[in-house]
């Protein structure tokens, strides 16, 4: 919608039109807007520009009429009927013509005769005059339209500029041959574009005038004599099937890594307080690990499977200065041998058949400024051990298929449950790498060497699985705890955690008893029964264990139950009753 404001914006044009019209016709001209404000005028009206006309005047009538007309008998004409100025009106004749845009009247242009001669000019040439004035009204309307479009374009241009400058990506538009035309702030900050004329000076020989788009190609550029890595993409501007220029977008490698790390870093942080244990053994290890967190030196964590090596590695990272940077964990046995190298070091575009076109970043690059956790390091293939040694010694990596070195700042924490010294002896692990990794050794004791932790671990896991499985089990019986203290725990804390989860699932009362434990632990108990020092089980617990054992062996169908009853030396009815009683 157009408003009176739009008319004011072209007031210079209106003045020109009224002056030109008045000098050609020799009659005074005036223009009012739809609110009856005088916007332009000649002669007598010159001093009254800006005045507000009364609501019953001729122009108010003309606005309602919405078409051109001539008045030859002012004061008597219907248009003057209610005019409050009728008594002082000295006008001899008038011509009114609406200024219309899209059929809406937004003002009136009028000619006014103040004497007989001027009236004669109007009345002698009515048709031509009306036509002429309509042209003037159209001229004003098209000027308004043009002005509006200009404003829209200016607005769009500044919106686009703000949009481009608020992006985190550098954008440059070029001509057909790469000559730089326009760019945003980020692009200027990256490349100091006041010193550069052509895009080829930035991406060197990588640009040839192509018609198809290119996305995410890596390149190196210089800024203040230092080399930086970035990615660029290009899209041709095609008009009438002809490439008229290109749009280049640039992303700094640093920014991309930040985004990747933000997305891939675990949202849950781990702290030493998450490592449960009150035994002297574990307290000592925790104290030592906290101390070494502050250092940047490589740590080698040793300990049996499930002792909490990864938990320690995470806590060290989140306790260190690198806390805001990524913690990247990689398990050397979980990845096929032929993929570990590219996983760790990445690869260049076209490094091998099947490689992605844009290449791939390795975990070392992703972990830049953070920590990498190399689990099961003892299983790392020998040829990669050499590459890893180089990272540790020189803090650089080389991508597969690449020919340049990339600096990385990563703290390495390695872990193993193997005897690395033995592997070194048998030449399965490089001796120099072993010493390079073992700068700070951290040995996590197995659970059987910290039996005092069993109670607190059991309580924690019971609480965890009560919550997770929506149960309300109060405690674990003393017999079970005694059994746990005798068991050798080859799978350590992980195994204990799994045992509690199993028992919470099996338990039908509010106390976990031996019968609720997995078979391997119960069998351990059976062995213990033979020993005179072993804890005494209730007859009911023993009965439940044996019935379960028989059912597991013979099956739970009718035949299986019959066989079980026979093996247990009880009748069919009894075994059915016991199954129901113990909810087996
Ligand atoms: N002290 C502890 N307190 C609580 N949970 C623990 C503790 N130690 C280990 N866990 C839990 O036990 C499981 C195994 O821990 P983790 O993966 O750290 O062991 P690991 O030594 O790295 O095992 P692996 O050698 O098999 O990789 C995890 O679920 C972990 O949360």
Automatic annotation (TrEMBL):
GO terms for biological process: regulation of DNA-templated transcription. It comes from the Bacteria. InterPro entries: AAA+_ATPase (IPR003593), AAA_lid_NorR (IPR058031), Homeodomain-like_sf (IPR009057), P-loop_NTPase (IPR027417), Sigma_54_int (IPR002078), Sigma_54_int_dom_ATP-bd_1 (IPR025662), Sigma_54_int_dom_ATP-bd_2 (IPR025943), Sigma_54_int_dom_CS (IPR025944). CDD domains: AAA (cd00009). The keyword DNA-binding applies. GO terms for molecular function: ATP binding; DNA binding. This is AAA family ATPase. Keywords: ATP-binding, DNA-binding, Nucleotide-binding, Transcription, Transcription regulation. Residues 275-505 form the Sigma-54 factor interaction domain. The keyword Hydrolase does not apply.
């Amino acid at each position: 919608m157009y408003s009176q404001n739009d008319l004011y914006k072209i007031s210079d044009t209106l003045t020109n039109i009224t002056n030109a019209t008045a000098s050609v016709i020799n009659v005074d001209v005036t223009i009012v807007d739809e609110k009856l404000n005088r916007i332009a005028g000649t002669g007598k009206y010159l001093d009254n520009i800006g005045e507000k006309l009364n609501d019953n005047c001729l122009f108010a009538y003309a606005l309602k009429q919405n078409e051109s007309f001539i008045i030859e008998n002012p004061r008597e004409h219907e248009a003057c009927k209610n005019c409050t100025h009728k008594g002082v009106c000295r006008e001899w004749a008038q011509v009114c013509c609406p200024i219309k845009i899209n059929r809406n009247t937004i003002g009136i242009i009028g000619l006014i005769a103040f004497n007989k001669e001027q009236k004669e000019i109007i009345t002698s040439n009515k048709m031509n005059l009306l036509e002429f004035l309509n042209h003037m009204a159209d001229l004003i309307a098209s000027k308004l339209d043009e002005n509006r479009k200009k404003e829209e374009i200016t607005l769009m241009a500044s919106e686009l500029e703000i949009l481009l400058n608020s992006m985190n990506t550098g954008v440059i538009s070029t001509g057909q041959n790469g000559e730089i035309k326009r760019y945003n702030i980020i692009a200027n900050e990256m490349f100091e574009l006041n010193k550069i004329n052509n895009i080829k000076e930035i991406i060197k020989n990588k640009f040839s005038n192509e018609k198809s788009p290119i996305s995410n190609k890596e390149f190196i550029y210089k800024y203040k004599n230092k080399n930086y890595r970035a990615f660029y993409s290009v899209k041709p501007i095609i008009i009438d099937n002809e490439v008229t220029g290109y749009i280049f977008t640039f992303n700094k490698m640093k920014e991309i890594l930040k985004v990747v790390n933000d997305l891939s870093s675990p949202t849950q942080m781990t702290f030493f307080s998450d490592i449960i244990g009150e035994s002297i053994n574990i307290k000592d290890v925790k104290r030592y690990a906290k101390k070494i967190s502050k250092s940047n030196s490589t740590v080698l964590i040793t300990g049996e499977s499930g002792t909490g090596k990864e938990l320690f590695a995470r806590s060290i990272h989140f306790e260190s200065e690198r806390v805001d940077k990524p913690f990247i964990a990689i398990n050397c046995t979980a990845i096929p041998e032929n993929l570990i190298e590219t996983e760790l070091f990445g690869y260049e575009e076209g490094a091998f058949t099947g490689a992605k076109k844009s290449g791939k970043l390795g975990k070392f690059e992703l972990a830049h400024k953070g920590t990498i956790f190399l689990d099961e390091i003892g299983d790392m293939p020998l040829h990669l051990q050499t590459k890893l040694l180089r990272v540790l010694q020189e803090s650089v990596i080389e991508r597969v298929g690449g020919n340049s070195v990339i600096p990385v700042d990563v703290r390495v924490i390695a872990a193993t449950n193997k005897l690395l010294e033995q592997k070194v002896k048998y030449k399965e692990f490089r001796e120099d790498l072993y010493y390079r990794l073992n700068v700070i050794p951290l040995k996590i004791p197995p659970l059987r060497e910290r039996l005092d932790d069993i109670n607190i671990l059991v309580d924690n896991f019971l609480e965890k699985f009560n919550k997770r499985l929506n149960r309300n089990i109060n405690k674990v019986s003393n017999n079970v705890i005694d059994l746990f203290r005798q068991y050798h725990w080859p799978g350590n804390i992980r195994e204990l955690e799994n045992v509690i989860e199993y028992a919470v699932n099996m338990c039908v009362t509010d106390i976990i008893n031996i019968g609720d434990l997995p078979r391997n632990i119960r069998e351990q108990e059976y062995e213990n029964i033979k020993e005179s020092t072993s804890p005494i089980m209730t007859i009911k617990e023993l009965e439940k264990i044996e019935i379960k054992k028989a059912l597991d062996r013979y099956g739970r169908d009718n035949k299986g139950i019959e066989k079980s009853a026979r093996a247990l030396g009880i009748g069919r009815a009894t075994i059915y009753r016991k199954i129901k009683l113990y909810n087996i």
